[in-house]
Amino acid sequence: DTETYEDFFMGMAHFKDIALAHILGFEQKKAAGRHLCVEAIRHYSDFVNLVADLYPEYNVAK
């Protein structure tokens, strides 16, 4: 049974970019506060299709 995510979007970022943001946040006093690290905003179905294409050995429902 699969669910439908008609209006579900998610922010995506590479883990190395997130790690660097954490390091810079700790090292730079002027970086105080909250920050949002997002490379792209994509619909959930785009993410599912990408995972299915990258890992065809897994049964990913499209």
UniProtKB/TrEMBL annotation:
<protein>
    <submittedName>
        <fullName>Cinnamoyl-CoA reductase 1-like</fullName>
    </submittedName>
</protein>
